[in-house]
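Wed. Picked up where I left off yesterday with SnoaL-like domain-containing protein. The coffee machine is broken again, so keeping this brief.
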Amino acid sequence: MDQRTLDRVTRYVVALAEFDRNARAAMCGDVSNEESAVRVYLEHHLHEPDLIRPVLGLASGSVVSVDAFVGALRLRAVAFYSGTEISEHEAMFDYSIDPDGTQYLLAVRFDTHGRVDRIDIES
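Structure written out below (tokens, as returned):
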């Protein structure tokens, strides 16, 4: 990684909490989209009540709100793309509801301007 690339990705490290908040806000907003990765992820895991409700601290049969769900996601990894890897994405934040209970992640991608560009499900 050259110095210019290091300077660009340093902003994610220095302001990690801010980028995390931006990613979570984007995930909450994504639920209303017709092809929402967050909604698919949430609905998939709601079929596993023994996984979701304990993570959220809810009694069985409780309604799981999008805000509670997104708030309970754990930031598992942050990846940076440099050199020839840079296309439209510069950083990717991976979130999981329970890393030991599911193989699926929500991947929030940031563009070269530091804005959330895309949210996908990955395994």
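Quick read: The first strand starts at residue 74 and ends at 80.
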